Amino acid sequence: MIWKNFKKRLVIFLAIVGPGLITAVADNDAAGVATYSVAASLYGMASQYLVIPTTILLGVTQEIGARISIVTGKGLGSLIREKYGVKMAIGIFFLYFFVNQTVVLQDVTGLKSAIQLFGLPWEIVLILTCLLLVVMVIKLNFKKLQKVFLFMILFYVSYVISAILVHPDWKEAIQESFILPKKVNIMDPGYWFSLIAVLGTTVTLWGQFFISSFIVDKGLTKGDLKANKVEVYGGAFLTNFLSWMMAIAVTFTLFTNHIMVTDGFAAAKAIEPLAGNFSASLFAIGLFAASILGLFIVPLATAYVFTEMFGYERTLNVDFKTGKVFYIFFVLQILIALIIALFPGINLFSLTLWGNYLNGAALPVVFFFIIRFSENKEIMGEHAAKGFGKWVVRFALFVIVGAVSVSVLQNFI
Fold it and tell me: Which fold has domain 21-412?
């Protein structure tokens, strides 16, 4: 009897798996890898000091966003247009597009860096890889693409192995991450700037929209709410466990040797003489997988939102002719980033901390809409937000606005 119940629940879980796990882990795209690497090289494991509250915030916000879409059958973009009008939708979309494009630029550069780390002719391989991504998105349907996304997640285990190979001081890692940092000056404005950047690359603006759109495309119903909740929180834990392991790999090679880097490429190269070729290769493999997953997910997130907000066909289950606006928006973002990345002297990873700081600073905007929709009983009925989750999002909105304001004033002064 117990076995039958377990099998039944497992089948239900496997049927709904995808949106929460893919969205959460894709937060650790090339832009994320770069941000974690830069922050850890500057501040060690103290760069992960907010990892527990960030995990909770990621889980809560994505679960609420997922619940809104499951109950209403609509993505956040559609709800914003319907409840706040086209002018508001246009303003939100331009902010969203700008922030997302900085992430896509970093993901293309991450792919370029990974190809260079493998010693391949980067120009032709980069063009062919981006072309392959475009063809896959246009030709494959939702179910097949979801399998590709889930498969790419397996490569992230390389960061776990890489972290173990550097023989870290686990006691120091726990002290700096979870108790109180002793290796850095916690009053340093730059430190808090990096913490907001790490937050912004983990709890992303695009992720809050993508999970709702992906759920609508997958066709989840109210009967899937409980299983989806388990998947979302599991994904939040996994993504921050992986980011913690990335920080370990960088901290106990670069930070301990006072080596600062500006991107994931430099981190992988700098790790090599300190931890060996194998560890550096694993870091490069992780960077490649993160870049690919990011270049699938982030442009799709923008395409979903544009078509939702302005009433075009928005699904991966139609051909190019039927969903041409959706697919063109996907291709456009990759094309812009690719053209810029093909200039040899341009390193888009200089956007790393600033781009993800902007992502973190913009989170209160989407949190506002999540709060308004999730607590509206006319929209949500019996599934309206209440209790712990309701106050976590409100508290996070207040804290992020405060932290951004303080950091801006400190940097200005």
Answer: Amino acid/polyamine transporter I (1.20.1740)
